[in-house]
Amino acid sequence: MIHILLIEDDVGILESTAELLELEGYRITTATNGKEGLQKIFHLIPDLVICDIVMPVMDGYELLEKIGIQPTFSAIPFIFFSAKSEKNDIKHGLSMGAVDYLTKPFELDELLLVIKNSLQ
What we know:
- The chain has 5 helices and 5 strands.
- The protein has helices at residues 11-23, 34-44, 60-68, 87-95, 108-119; strands spanning 3-7, 27-31, 48-51, 78-82, 100-103.
- The chain has a 5-stranded parallel β-sheet, sandwiched between helices.
- Helix 1 (11-23) links the parallel strand 1 (3-7) and strand 2.
């Protein structure tokens, strides 16, 4: 079973997205900020990380930066999903090493397609 770490500070979005992905057959672990997410990455080594950008404690950019310098974790596909939808935001996220960038709000079909493409 594919294990996804979902990192989002909005509890409503976090819970609803986690539930939808679990119904699609994914194993989901959640975190509410980048620092908590980083700890879970080190302990669980998920198959994929889906992460918001603007969060307290540690934002998504800093998290991706910290993962990228760790050879063990740098190969984990990382997807940003954020309300930051300007072209420059998307470009910046992808240039940092994210495999994809999904803007909120999104449709479940979009999310599933991004996940599928990222795991190939």
